[in-house]
Design a protein that fits this description.
The protein has a single domain, classed as UbiA prenyltransferase (Tetracycline Repressor, domain 2, Orthogonal Bundle), CATH 1.10.357. It has 310 residues and is mostly helical. The longest helix has 31 residues. It is built from 13 helices and two strands, in the order ββααααααααααααα.
Length: 310
């Protein structure tokens, strides 16, 4: 079959770039993007015009999309041998051969180059060269997670660290001086919340692959501790994430009742996530992983932005 396109079950041709987009699950951007936007609003200088900030925010969103595209394609590329052997992932485009390795690398490197170029625009247009200087280290850091499952069960924490960069990087791109006083502490607490929250739900996600990870000698907390032990680790991580987001709410003076309501909603959602997992087991994984965690990021990001604007 040609690498230019493949056929969907309905018989329609699917271009290779559509296959790539499907493979990296663009919809999962919902986990990190709201926190990047919130980090940008936290760092915004209230005296600056909205026109300048809108331009900065557009660049933040562009950088987020490009960085995630790079990281996810890198993940699919380096894991394609494992994906092909795992029945759950064998139909992914790279694992199945529907998308060629050269094309995937071309798209991944194009996304990385686009990220560096977009980061450099903060320097060219706004005089802030920090994003350009840190662009390559950031790309390396968010790609590194894909290799960690080969040598440590703490791979979930590395994924959390990759996503936790989003509010910090966005704030640095908007205003490097934002990391002082209560706002700086709130940004760090928010990043800590993202790290712990993502690590917790990635432990839940990895429950699907306990048997395969063990057979392939891959490290994960579920493979190491089993279903029950992994669930308790995920609960502990989410309790710590709850503490971190409450700290961010109480420290940042611009966070008011709207963000507080968002925090309450998030805490309830995290509890519900674990109730669903406990009651439904594997049947509840889709709801526990994607639906409920999408609610967490969107509600918290939107509530924080609303409080910044009122």
């Amino acid at each position: 079959m040609s690498q230019t396109a493949t056929m969907s079950p309905a018989g329609a041709a699917r271009p290779w770039y559509v296959l790539a987009a499907d493979d990296i699950k663009i919809a999962h951007s919902v986990f990190a993007l709201p926190f990047a936007v919130l980090g940008a609003f936290l760092a915004r200088d209230g005296g600056a015009g909205w026109g300048r900030f809108a331009g900065q925010l557009a660049l933040v969103v562009l950088c987020m999309v490009l960085a995630r595209t790079w990281a996810m394609l890198f993940n699919r590329l380096v894991d394609r041998r494992f994906d092909a052997a795992n029945p759950r992932t064998a139909r992914r485009a790279l694992a199945s051969g529907a998308l060629s390795v050269p094309r995937a690398w071309t798209l991944a490197l194009a996304a990385a180059g686009g990220f560096i170029a977009a980061s450099s625009l903060f320097g060219v247009l706004m005089g802030n060269w920090w994003p350009a200087l840190l662009s390559v280290p950031v790309l390396a850091w968010i790609a590194f997670y894909s290799l960690t499952k080969r040598f440590t069960a703490l791979c979930h924490v590395f994924l959390g660290g990759a996503l936790a960069v989003s509010p910090l990087a966005a704030a640095l791109a908007i205003e490097p001086g934002a990391f002082t006083g209560p706002t700086g502490t709130a940004l760090l607490a928010l990043a800590g919340m993202v790290l712990l929250w993502v690590a917790g739900f990635d432990v839940i996600y990895a429950l699907q692959d306990i048997d395969f990870d063990r057979s392939a000698n891959l490290r994960s907390i579920p493979a190491r501790l089993g279903w029950r032990g992994a669930c308790w680790v995920a609960r502990g991580l989410h309790v710590a994430a709850a503490v971190a987001v409450v700290v961010a709410w109480r420290i940042e003076p611009r966070f008011g009742w709207v963000f507080g309501a968002g925090v309450a909603c998030v805490l309830g959602t995290l509890v519900l996530e674990h109730v669903v997992l406990a009651k439904r087991g594997k049947a509840g994984l889709d709801m526990a992983f994607f639906t409920l965690n999408g609610v967490v990021s969107c509600v918290l990001g939107l509530a924080g932005v609303v409080d910044m604007m009122v």
